[in-house]
Amino acid sequence: MGEKKIDVLIKEMQKLSAAIERIAGPAAAANDWDAAECFVWAPASHHLQPVKRPNRIELSLITGVDHVRDILVDNTLRFAEGYPANNVLLWGARGMGKSSLVKSVHAQIARDTGVAMKLVEVHREDIATLPALMEILKSAPVPVIVFCDDLSFDHDDTSYKSLKAVLDGGVEGRPANVLLYATSNRRHLLPRHMMENEQSTAINPSEAVEEKVSLSDRFGLWLGFHKCSQEDYLAMIDGYAAHYGLAVDKEALHADGLEWSTTRGARSGRVAWQFIQDLAGRLRHRLDD
């Protein structure tokens, strides 16, 4: 074969190689566990994106949920120390600090124990990619909490099966260094009409409903969050005001805070925080830690 033909063949092979690379897409990015304490799962590139400044508050500022807070702290502490712990579903009223509690407990336990425990957030729309994430996490040199916020499933949504498989662990079993924490406004994760539809169209209705309801059962701990009392709401406001040094008379603070909750039609941790942000803005006071 002549030299010119060899050159032509080499060029054609290079073009073919480039075409294959384009079809295959970008290579999976390398994950650096030392890059941050918290990460966000990017399934397209199989990459854990570091979060340099996590959006979280001090655990001491989360009030009105003392019982569930203590349970979650104990469960997370056992996990960080290498002892058995449960997957957790935090469910209930909106704005009562479910997601804030997960992030704050993670930070507190990691700080107190000195264990480089990581928090990996999975977006709701990426639930179907959980098995791929587990493949990465099982070789992680640190304990990892996989966190899914505002978890729920709608009609014709089959991604819940991926979550169910991960919670069950399948043949291989859930990696010992991984826990799943999820928050939801629903105790059973699926809407009632979806379960009723399954019941009305199934050959064995009771088994169809059991299939749906059993998803929540696969979480070892259910932590319920309920609407807070006026006393708890005012305690949240007092805690924020003291922490951020807002110099306001307590009686005036409470009156202003109650008026704010009336205009919002609700009392919750989220409403208390929104009031504090408004108050700090009016006082020209920065809320920097």
Please describe what this structure looks like.
Pfam families: DUF815. This is ATPase AAA. InterPro entries: DUF815, P-loop_NTPase. The chain is an alpha/beta fold and about 290 residues long. It has two domains: about 40-225, P-loop containing nucleotide triphosphate hydrolases (Rossmann fold), CATH 3.40.50.300; about 230-280. The protein contains ten helices and seven strands. The protein has a seven-stranded mixed beta sheet. Helix 2 packs across helix 3 (about 100-115) and helix 9 (about 250-265) packs across helix 10 (about 270-280). It is elongated. The N and C termini lie far apart (about 75 Å).
In short:
This protein has 289 residues and is of the alpha/beta class. The chain is built from ten helices and seven strands. The longest helix is centred in the N-terminal third of the chain and has 22 residues.
